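Input sequence (342 aa), recorded before submission:
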Amino acid sequence: MRIGITFTAKNSGADMPVCQAGDANLGDAEEEFDSPETIAALRGALESLGHEVTLLGDGEPMFRRLLDEPRPEMVFNIAEGRGCARDREARVPAVLETLGIPYTGSDPLTLAAALDKDCAKRLVRDAGVSTPRWVFVDGSFSDDVAAQLDLLPLPVFIKPAFEGSSKGIVGSNLIADRAELHEAVARLSETYRQPILVEEFIDGDELTVGIIGHEPTDVLGIMRVVPKQKDVPFVYGLDVKRDWRRRVEYECPAQLSAADVQTVRRAALRAWRALGCRDVARLDFRLRAGVAYFLEANPLPGLAPGSGDLILMAEAMGVSHVGVIDRIVQAAIERQSLSLAV
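Predicted structure, token format:
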């Protein structure tokens, strides 16, 4: 099969004059984007499966290739999109649908809804899945917003509302003093140029659930992120992920009771369906006292060999990097009833 790869590469935005917000101290402006090594590994995996692969990129270069060159039979989409808007991950799939090109993964609506943490939590909550209580802060603190914040138990956790890959998420975002909250929210909003989510902090097991497939959808595994330092509230933030070998242990399969495993599986599949995810996604939860609290969903999970949470989980469950890529492609083929073959 002729497969094109759409991606947003690190250090490639010189010709895309769209803002890319981030924290200069963290250097996370391009944290969501894929490295040349990840793109090369994905290409190598697809080629090892017998596919003919073309790199399409993102933005205008992708548009020109799709319009001027022979079109692929399918696109493997990992493009995150540049800018600050909550719809940025939806742009590439929207173009592909306009051109009638099949692609892997979720559609534009799901990608936009999942990136908007407030929207995702509302959809998942309405489907019957527990989520930490939260307040969406857009702009100044009105009397209504202040009243809602007063109802949240301390500590609370603050995060950018439209980011992925743990951008803007660090341990210092855990706020235990209401007097500090206003300033902290304003600072984070200014840094990332977007609304902020203020969320009840669930002090429980940090879990991530990988799902791959199409009818039936398969829970690949449940992984628990276990901090090596036990004496402080654990935040699985960007600083931890960049230093994960020293700071955490990944336990997969998660050593949970049978009842808790079923609770988390049911919550993950219900959230997957509520958001309309397709082919592959990773969903994050906190488990406390037998209740699985939905945090967020990533329908474009990182696929970097040796570091992406989904890939580490897969390897622990006996599925190689190539195996993950193959499962995603096969799910997309089955979902779209394509008669294409290698």
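Checked by second reader. The chain is about 35% helix and 20% strand.
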